[in-house]
Amino acid sequence: MPPVRWLQRPCRRPPPVTVRIDSHDAPVTFAGLTSAGLYQMHVPVPANLADGDYPVTAEVGGARTAKFAKLAVAKSISAARTARPLWNRGDKQQFLPLVRRIREAA
């Protein structure tokens, strides 16, 4: 039986991850595998975005996503309740609005 072979060189570093919401770079607080085949990213939404729908793109190791995902931003709960699902014209995929609340600075 051959002897056990230990790791002879370090593991590869994960590729760099960047996320853009509209034209704003968003900080990625976590990017990695969460279960088999599921790559998850945690990205806080920039506080200076006004109400509206914004395209979201991600780039991982030089591969960029298409600009079909939209993020719906609303400053208040009442604005969020009137939001409707968004349809992508190209793929006819439904994207439910993601809503965030902006806390007023005291």
Question: Secondary-structure map with pairings?
Answer:
Layout: E1 17-21, E2 24-26, E3 30-35, E4 38-42, E5 52-60, E6 63-64, E7 70-73, H1 77-81, E8 86-87, E9 94-95
Antiparallel strand pairs: 1-2, 1-5, 3-4, 5-6, 5-7, 8-9
Description:
With 106 residues, the chain is mostly beta strands. The protein has one domain (17-95). 5% of the residues lie in helices and 36% in strands. It is built from 1 helix and 9 strands. It has one helix spanning 77-81; strands at 17-21, 24-26, 30-35, 38-42, 52-60, 63-64, 70-73, 86-87, 94-95. Strands 1, 2, 5, 6 and 7 form a 5-stranded antiparallel sheet that branches. Strands 3-4 form a two-stranded antiparallel sheet. Strands 8-9 form a two-stranded antiparallel sheet. The longest helix has 5 residues, at 77-81. The N and C termini lie far apart (70 Å). Mean pLDDT is 71; it is low at 88-106.
Question: Nutshell version of this structure?
Answer:
By secondary structure, the chain is mostly beta strands. It is built from 1 helix and 9 strands; from the N terminus they run E-E-E-E-E-E-E-H-E-E. The chain has one domain (17-95).
State the main characteristics.
106 residues, disordered C terminus, 1 helix, mainly beta, two-stranded antiparallel ribbon, single chain
Helical stretch tally: 1
Strand content: 35-45%
Distance between the termini: 70 Å
| Broad structural category | mainly beta
Listing every helix as H and every strand as E from the N terminus to the C terminus, the arrangement reads EEEEEEEHEE
**Helical content band:** under 10%
Total E-strand runs: 9
Mean pLDDT over the full residue set: 71
Count up the domains.
1
Kindly provide the radius of gyration, computed on alpha-carbon positions and rounded to a whole number of angstroms: 19 Å
Low-confidence stretches: 88-106
Largest sheet: 5 strands, antiparallel
Q: How does the overall form come out from the CA principal axes?
A: elongated
